[in-house]
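Worked example (supplementary).
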Amino acid sequence: MIGPTPCDTGTEGVEGGVGVTALLVAAARAIETHRPDSLAADAYAEHFVRAAPASADWPVRPPQVPDGDADPLWGRFARYFGLRTRVLDDFLLRSVHTGGARQVVLLGAGLDSRAFRLDWPAGCMVFEVDRAGVLSFKRRVLDGLSAVPATTRVPVAADLREDWAAALTDAGFDPAAPSVWLAEGLLFYLPPAAETSLIGTVDRLTTAGSALAYEVKLDEDLLAHRDSPLYTATAEQIGIDLLTLFDLAPRPDSVGHLTGRGWSASVHVPYEFTQRHGRGPLPEPNDALGGNRWVFARKRRS
Ligand SMILES: C[S@@+](CC[C@H](N)C(=O)[O-])C[C@H]1O[C@@H](n2cnc3c(N)ncnc32)[C@H](O)[C@@H]1O
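After joint prediction of all chains, the assembly is encoded as:
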């Protein structure tokens, strides 16, 4: 165990602490699904939101957001999650269809339904790593829908602040075969040492040609926008104070760690993808999203 974090509330499931953020992203994906200009469709998302008492009355359709895109939470922030979902869907699908990986590891998977909704090639395995309480809520909802995954899906209960490698390999992950990894909306909740350890574990469990995408926030940005419309609306409208959930300690240089171990990495500002897709959030003053970066890394072939 690396140590307690600000997100330690004793809550293991989706009802509070960091687990409730999985519902926030699910609600954003539900809204995105029903936009006329949707970037990603997730038919499961609204069922997760409706099933949890913490989120049962949150919006799941655009008409339930009277201010539309002007709402800092269910407008702009939800658009951000919609864009992120699409960009990372594309990354994973490229990695399996073109890159040849057949193992997909979703770290901090939350209520990610990619195992059900994406077009996976034959022989894929999708490992969903999250805490036991989140995974059991997810299983209950999916069982209630009689949902059938589009590929082999393997939930792995683990705390990513601890040594989780054995849980993954015991669940059937093969470190000798190529893989693609995702840490979407995860690393800023972990202590820096846990992030460094996680990156080291990914490196240790991957072959050349494997790929990793993850999201970070720049250090100097973490507290700079504490009074931004986005953080304020999230706290006021649904009671989630993201700044108390983030680990505010200085972040490690994970790109440096990866490149030092033979990976190539490119760092992107999400707004690049807003331009590419023609929709999504744009910069604004006092911008809580301004320090977000999406990193795409590939382990070089030897
Ligand atoms: C913002 S949600 C993102 C979920 C998902 N990746 C997505 O984008 O929809 C953060 C997720 O990270 C998980 N998480 C946070 N800290 C964790 C830890 N120490 N071990 C395992 N999972 C963790 C939470 O339970 C939650 O499901």
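Two points are worth noting when inspecting this output. The CA atoms of residues 247 and 291 lie 15 Å apart. The chain is about 35% helix and 15% strand.
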